[in-house]
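Input (structure):
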C-alpha cells in the first residue's frame, strides 16, 4: 500500500489472517490516522509501517507488527492506546494441525510515542476458552519508545521489551511505568 495522503481509519480492523509468511506494508509520506481502530489480528501476516510513513491517532496495534517509521499516538482524555499481543480463536485443519498460530512479535526500528494519554504495551489477556490460544509478547526495540509531557507508557501483562539497541524514554515530564498484575521485563538499552 502506498499512502502519500491521509487515511482515516475509524472503528474497524486492518488485518490479513493468511498463513503468516507474508507482509502487508504501508509506505509513502502519508499518514494513517487511527480513530479507535485496530491494526492486526494477533495472527497471520505481519503489518509493516515503512520508513517515512506515520501512524497517528489513538487505537490498538496487535502483533505481528514491525515499525520502521513513526507511530505518534495522541489520545483524548478517557481514551487509551494499546500495542501488544491478543488471544485468538484457534482453528484446526483436517490433519489436526493449527490453521493459525497466535503471534507475539513486535519490532520497533523507528519511533513510537504517546504525546497525550495512556499507552499500554502488553501481552495478551489469558485465553478464556479451550479454543483460544495466547503467546507471550516480545517487543524488540531498536529505535525509540517515548512518553511525551502528557503521556504515560505502562509495560504490563507479561510483556518482554528487548531494549538492547534502543531507548525507552520520557520527554518533558512523561512517565514510563512497570505495572500490571503479572509484570513486565525490560532487557538492556537505555532508560531515560
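Output (sequence):
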Amino acid at each position: 500500500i502506498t499512502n502519500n495522503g491521509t487515511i482515516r481509519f475509524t472503528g474497524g480492523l486492518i488485518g490479513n489472517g493468511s498463513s503468516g509468511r507474508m507482509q502487508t506494508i504501508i509506505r509513502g509520506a502519508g499518514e494513517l490516522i487511527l480513530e479507535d481502530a485496530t491494526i492486526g489480528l494477533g495472527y497471520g501476516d505481519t503489518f509493516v509501517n515503512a520508513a517515512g510513513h506515520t501512524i497517528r491517532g489513538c487505537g490498538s496495534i496487535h502483533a505481528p507488527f514491525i515499525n520502521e517509521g513513526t507511530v505518534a499516538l495522541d489520545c483524548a482524555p478517557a481514551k487509551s492506546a494499546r500495542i501488544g499481543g491478543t488471544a485468538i480463536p484457534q482453528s484446526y485443519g483436517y490433519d489436526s494441525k493449527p490453521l493459525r498460530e497466535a503471534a507475539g512479535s513486535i519490532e520497533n526500528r523507528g519511533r513510537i510515542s504517546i504525546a497525550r494519554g495512556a499507552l499500554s504495551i502488553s501481552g495478551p489477556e489469558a485465553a478464556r476458552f479451550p479454543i483460544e490460544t495466547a503467546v507471550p509478547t516480545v517487543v524488540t526495540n531498536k529505535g525509540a519508545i517515548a512518553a511525551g509531557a502528557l503521556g504515560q507508557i505502562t509495560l504490563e501483562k507479561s510483556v518482554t521489551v528487548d531494549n538492547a539497541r534502543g531507548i525507552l524514554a520520557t520527554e518533558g515530564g512523561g512517565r514510563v511505568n512497570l505495572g500490571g498484575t503479572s509484570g513486565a521485563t525490560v532487557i538492556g538499552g537505555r532508560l531515560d
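Notes: The radius of gyration is 16 Å. The first strand starts at residue 6 and ends at 10.
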